[in-house]
Write a structure and sequence with these properties.
Distance between the termini: 63 Å
Mean pLDDT: 78
Oligomer: single chain
Number of helices: 17
Number of domains: 3
CATH topology of the largest domain: Nucleotidyltransferase, domain 5
């Protein structure tokens, strides 16, 4: 009976409540965009989902990781103001809000993500100007595989290959999806689904390449151009402003990157070479086709694909602003796109800007135009070289808005993750029922209960809806007589489930916090390991430096010893010369003394005349000889004096040189000792830090 009651209640609530709404915000790397989704059920209980695009705000939510709660509130509110105008007022208090981050958030650490989501929730919860349902469980980061899965669901729903209940539509063929953002790129295509079953993620091959979005690739290209230019122009003046040619920019376009000016040359072929060097740095693209991106190979592609996001924005801008026309749009061949891209890149900067002012492109800001050439060349390389699409086939549809839907992953999220309030109520109170597969049982019950029961239940449900807008809360006064027992039973079930939900929310919050702590500890461990490696490297470098100092000290000692030996030889020679001079002076002094005595004897005249005459002759002879000897002695004295002066000067210079060398030796040894002590102290400090690191 309860089963019948629930099925009839579905009929009544669908008739009374009509459609439902959800607000989904895509928190991307470059900005956040809001989408309003409207849910209806057709006569076969199949969901029909339509979407309305809200507004976009910039920059990405991830840039607020160091911001305040107030700044996040100001950032998000414009999207809520727009949604209030789109969603009917009587649906505000049943509209659930979902905010999901993509690659920009994935680049943050887990702890930063957790902090940012908490600030986001706190900025919106109980806000006076937000009438929607705010639940922290609906805020979070999706991984690249989920993003790819949602993108392919959106593509197939737009193409009519699956219905709103995720069943494959008969006599249709599933399509693949290509998605490109600022920080990541995704590709996904269908492999197999069992007949009669819903499609699930395991039915697809998918991959998300983080760091291969257009903005991060652009930064890699610019850095490579600067590095390549410096390598081939080593003699450039470092003081002069650096201007580097940029083949991926319009002719004479100038972009500042890392304090360097990149000036466009508009060469699509050269731009393609640079991009291939970035995406396939080991040159592995030349030996295989398709070329694995980041080492990832995929099965052979087959069938049609939708190109979303930047695939559409970039190529649509190129066909709109450029000179080439793509008559087969939105299914051009890669060859046609290549011709259009090369023509677009060769524009002069003023030509491109003038065309932008005249024609304007609604999906390109004026500051984005200068990057569309690089984006177009990069996307062409991915399609042909990376994914292996035939350059002459038309199996890629560049899509933005198809059949009233914008081709975005958010539509796939709305299909796979959001349930109608009616469905959610049934699943919470009877999980064994699959509301979306109840069509057969529904019609059987309707036939059995008859029109009278249906009218009665309709009246009850209508009154219930007027009392309270939520379909899952019943007023006790309506059921206190006829449905008292069932009402009590439902109340108990709801109460128990609410307790479980509260516990689950607590567990999920604890689990999230635990994951954040684990991630933080992992990051800390990696940092400690890095510091340990740096310490080992520094220790090794210090040991090498100390050894070099020891070698230099040894060479200095050897040179000093050689200089000392040379000075010792010179001193010995000078001492010998001094001795020779001293001996010569003593001999001259003795000769002079002897002559002086002889002259004294001659002057006395105490001898006989003959003796006197003889003495006088001898004296005269001796006097002459004495004069000669005296002259010789005087000359010797002069020579000895000069020699002595030279010897004194030499001795003085030698002593000064010895003193200078000794002072230099002492100074060198003191500096070596000081440097060695400093290095020993640094090694001791590093060993202490390493010990603490190892203990941690």
């Amino acid at each position: 009976m309860f089963y019948v009651f629930i099925l009839c209640l579905v009929v009544v609530l669908v008739a009374v409540l009509g459609d439902d709404y959800a607000l989904v915000i895509d928190a991307g790397s470059t900005g956040s965009r809001s989408f309003v989704f409207k849910y209806e059920l057709d006569e076969s209980n199949v969901r029909i989902i339509s979407s309305t695009k809200g507004v976009k705000v910039t920059p990405g939510l991830s840039s607020f990781v160091d911001g305040t709660q107030e700044s996040i509130e100001d950032y998000l509110l414009p999207m809520f103001y727009a949604a209030v105008k789109i969603i009917p007022e009587d649906k505000h208090n049943t509209t659930v809000v979902y905010i999901k981050g993509t690659a920009g958030m994935r680049l943050l650490s887990r702890s930063d993500q957790s902090k940012l989501w908490k600030m986001t929730y706190n900025s919106l919860y109980n806000h006076d100007n937000i009438p929607f349902i705010i639940n922290s469980n609906n805020f979070g980061t999706i991984d690249g595989y989920d993003e790819a899965y949602y993108a392919v669901l959106a593509s197939n729903y737009i193409a009519g290959s699956i219905d709103g209940n995720l069943h494959v539509v008969e006599n249709t063929r599933m399509v693949g999806a290509l998605d490109m953002g600022g920080s990541s790129s995704q590709m996904i295509f269908h492999t197999y689904t069992k007949p009669g079953k819903k499609v699930t993620a395991k039915d697809f091959w998918m991959h998300s390449w983080l760091n291969y979005g257009v903005e991060l690739v652009r930064e890699k290209v610019f850095a490579h151009l600067i590095k390549e230019f410096k390598h081939t122009n080593k003699d450039i003046d470092a003081a002069s402003p650096l201007v580097v040619p940029n083949p991926c920019g319009f002719i004479n376009n100038e972009v500042e990157f890392d304090k360097v000016t990149l000036r466009g040359s508009g060469n699509g072929s050269e731009c393609s070479r640079v991009i291939q060097t970035i995406v396939w740095p080991k040159g592995n693209c030349a030996s295989s086709s398709p070329c694995p991106i980041d080492g990832v190979r995929h099965p052979p592609i087959d069938g049609d694909f939708y190109g979303m996001s930047v695939y559409f924005y970039a190529f649509d801008c190129i066909r709109h602003i450029g000179n080439a026309r793509l008559a087969s749009w939105p299914t051009p061949t890669i060859a046609e796109l290549e011709s259009a891209v090369n023509s677009f890149c060769s524009l002069r900067n003023h030509e491109a800007n003038r065309a932008m002012q005249i024609k304007k492109h609604k999906y390109t800001r004026s500051d984005q135009l200068q990057y569309r050439c690089l984006e177009g060349v990069y996307l062409l390389n991915l399609l042909e070289n990376g994914f292996g699409f035939n350059r002459n086939s038309r199996n890629i549809t560049l899509a933005l808005d198809v059949k009233g839907h914008e081709a975005e992953w958010t539509l796939g999220f709305a299909l796979a993750e959001i349930s109608l309030p009616i469905e959610q109520f049934i699943r919470e109170n009877n999980p064994s029922l699959d509301v979306l597969d109840m069509e057969h049982q529904f019609h059987q019950v309707v036939a059995s209960v008859g029109a009278s029961l249906l009218r009665g239940l309709t009246s009850i449900a209508t009154t219930l809806y007027r009392v309270h807008t939520s379909p899952v809360r019943f007023t006790h006064a309506l059921f206190q007589n006829k449905y008292k027992s069932k009402y009590a039973e439902l109340q108990e079930i709801i109460k128990n489930n609410q307790v479980k939900l509260d516990r689950l929310a607590d567990l999920e919050e604890a689990h999230t916090e635990l994951n954040s702590q684990v991630a933080a500890l992992t990051d800390e461990k990696k940092e400690l390991q890095r510091k340990s490696e740096d310490s080992e490297s520094t220790k090794h470098q210090l040991q090498i430096a100390l050894q070099a100092i020891e070698d230099e000290k040894a060479r200095s000692k050897t040179a000093i010893a050689a200089a000392q030996a040379e000075m010792k030889n010179q001193v010995e020679k000078l001492e010998n010369n001094i001795k020779i001079c001293s001996d010569s002076k003593s001999s001259a002094d003795a000769t002079i003394s002897e002559l002086t005595n002889k002259l004294a004897v001659c002057e006395q005249g105490a001898v006989d005349s003959k003796g006197v005459q003889d003495a006088l002759d001898r004296c005269n002879n001796d006097a002459a000889a004495s004069q000669t000897l005296l002259k010789t002695c005087e000359e010797s004295q002069i020579s000895n004096g000069n020699l002595k002066n030279s010897l004194d000067k030499c001795t003085k210079d030698t002593l000064a040189s010895q003193s200078s060398h000794a002072a230099a030796i002492i100074d060198v040894e003191r500096k070596l000792l000081k440097l060695k002590d400093a290095h020993k102290e640094e090694i001791k400090k590093l060993e202490s830090e390493l010990k603490v690191c190892n203990e941690k």
